[in-house]
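FIELD: query
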Amino acid sequence: MREIAISKFKATCVEVLEEVRKTGTPVRITRSGRPMADVVPPQPVRKKSWLGCMTDSTEITGDLLMPTGAFDRWTMEKHVKDPAKGRQ
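FIELD: result
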């Protein structure tokens, strides 16, 4: 890892950052010989897929196979076909 004084880094900041991006080699910034910071290359950006994007965001409670209520309380409405309005 290359070391560079903070005063030189201030003067050549953009060039140092571009060098780190191109070469992938980190640079340590020092003040009076003591490390202040490390400039490291960025991690590759991964595109997120929509597949699995909801993982661990929902919770299923209860039984999925049983009906939600008693069948005797279910109602059914009849739809009458009205020629003037079309199908309802």
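FIELD: remark
The helical segments are 6-11, 13-23.
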